[in-house]
Design brief:
The protein is mainly alpha-helical. The chain has two domains: about 400 residues, Growth Hormone, Chain: A (Up-down Bundle); about 50 residues. It is built from 19 helices and no strands. The mean pLDDT is about 80.
Length: about 450
Amino acid sequence: MENSTKILIVLLLGSIMAAIDGSIVLLAFPTISQDLNANLSSSIWTLLIYMIVSATLTVQLGRVGDIYGRAKMFNLGFVVFTIASATAGFAPDILSLIISRGVQAIGSALMLSNSGAIVADVFPKEKLGRAFGYIASGWSVGGILGIALGGIITTLLGWRYIFYINLPIGAVALYLGLRYLKDVNIKKRRLDIVGMLLLAASLCLVSFGVLDLIVNTTGISTYLVLAGLVFGILFLVYEHKHPDPLIDLKHFRNRVLRYSMLAAFFMSVGYMGVTFLVILYLQGVRGLSPLNAALLFLPGYLISGVLAPKMGRLSDIYGVRKIATVGILCFGAATLVYITLNASTDVYIVMIASVFTGLGVSMFFPANNKAVMSNAPQDSYGVINGILRNISGIGVLFSYVIAIFIAFASLPPAMAEQLFVGTTTVIGGISDVFIHGIHIALAVAFFFIIIAGIFSLVRGK
């Protein structure tokens, strides 16, 4: 077995770990909330803290990888993520779980911010699409395991075991990483701690403000959102003057790289909250168990897991623009199928939409990642990969916040609370109102997907 193949296997294991944890948590929300006696405004932070920490740290940790070695930082990610998974499983209360999830996100950011740069270090440009295809398939395989095992484990063993599943994977992956990953292209860089803190403050305040508006707990939601926007403006002003900013706009002078980044951002904003909305529909409206809801998504994950490496190779041959743009169209088609759901729709329609999603995942992400890294300066692989993860992470966070706000805005705060934590299902007229809210959120998601498609189409060859 070639050394590059062994390295790719290690990177795949890291991707699988992160994907398993993300998809498992989505399906376990009601069980976790009930077991830890947590409400909506607190339990949702087990998801949001992961996204915020990942979004604010990826660029910085990509730079740290450039300075101290990408292999070292990637392997450190295995250690942090695995230990945090254990503490999450043992969490006695919701606060402990949120803290563990935040530490998990640090480990995930260490791996994700350096994985793409390691691929770009090891593989020649003509093989980058294939390599990124395998990395994307790692996400798909992780999604398969996360959704399937999440439903089975949560139902049969309890939610704590959804975190314990990372322990054996982390141990094996760390051993392989220490053995096969080596540091190359080490370069001195400056960190941007103030910019990172300003961005984190902005994202936290906006997220908390929107959630507070839904559950109406403090009455200061508007002020929180405004404060978050002020911190966001301060972040932009500070970054403009910083000599080595968190998001360096000079890297966006390359047309293909710039539009590929924007396509990734709007895809994240548009589609990443869609699965969450459909899970709410399946569990909150149709009353499906975590296991039965999970099984409906399996076809898409299977398709993406099989096709992603093949689509990566096709992007090497035919170019990224066609492959990535068709992938975005598949995401759009899936969203339109989901918009047809109502209180009496056959739930197997979800399986049809998941097929389109699987095609979209297999086509867009490998090709778009290749477009970004192929147009990045070799001495900035870590920074560019970190910026891509940063922009995508912010997009994912916005996607969930927008989806939650629009969907739950149609319900009384008490009903929204009970529905989220799984203590009730909506019926009758309230069900119709909630489904209408989901449809509006899906329509907004479709709008952002179209924007992503436009950027993908005009990026150039």
